[in-house]
Amino acid sequence: MCIDSMDYIKYHYEELLKLLIIISSEPKVQLEAYGIGNAEEEMAIDLEFHFNEHKTQLIENGLLTTDDVKAISEIDAFFEARSNDTHESFWGELETHPDWITLRKMASNALNKMGKGNLSIKINVKNETSWFSKNVTSQQITIELMSKYT
């Protein structure tokens, strides 16, 4: 099976849009979108994957403009500047650390600059529980991109 390269790039573009919406969202939504694990780190990792690793193709295929790249790169730099021991609390205090307020605004502004401020997400979570302990043992999370006005 051969994957069309444009479909591959469109996939990363849609995932990038979903990620920007998640980053711009309130902590409750961010935590729901990432489920079990460290939402703070996962957002940074996803930005690296969907944006940095595919930036050239996203531009070449007309999915991102120079201004879009600049706005998203600022978010990436914000994460990168906190990737050291002096900012350890940033990576564990999604709900209370003041830098997350700044980051949410940056992501919201980036979406608006891209003309995508009208988009939202729908998060679907399916929990698997242990028959013995009844604790959640795994989660399947899917995120759908949708219009805010539907």
Structural write-up:
With 150 residues, the chain is α+β, with helices and mostly antiparallel strands. It is built from six helices and two strands. It has a two-stranded antiparallel ribbon. A hairpin with a 6-residue loop joins strand 1 (119-129) and strand 2. The radius of gyration is 16 Å and the shape is globular. The chain starts with a helix and ends with a strand. The model has no long low-confidence stretch (mean pLDDT 91).
Find the count of extended strands (DSSP E, 2+ residues): 2
Overall radius of gyration:
16 Å
Number of helices: 6
Helix content: 40-55%
Distance between the termini: 35 Å
The fraction of residues in strands falls at 15-25%
**Secondary-structure element pattern, one letter each:** HHHHHHEE
Structural class: alpha+beta
Net shape: globular
Largest sheet: 2 strands, antiparallel
Average of per-residue pLDDT values: 91
Strand ordering within the main sheet: 1-2
Low-pLDDT ranges: none
Describe, in short, the structure shown.
By secondary structure, the protein is an alpha+beta fold.
Keywords:
single chain, 150 residues, alpha+beta, two-stranded antiparallel sheet, 6 helices, 2 strands, 15% strand, globular
Strand and helix map with partners:
Blueprint: H1 5-24, H2 27-34, H3 39-50, H4 55-60, H5 66-81, H6 98-113, E1 119-129, E2 136-147
Antiparallel strand pairs: 1-2
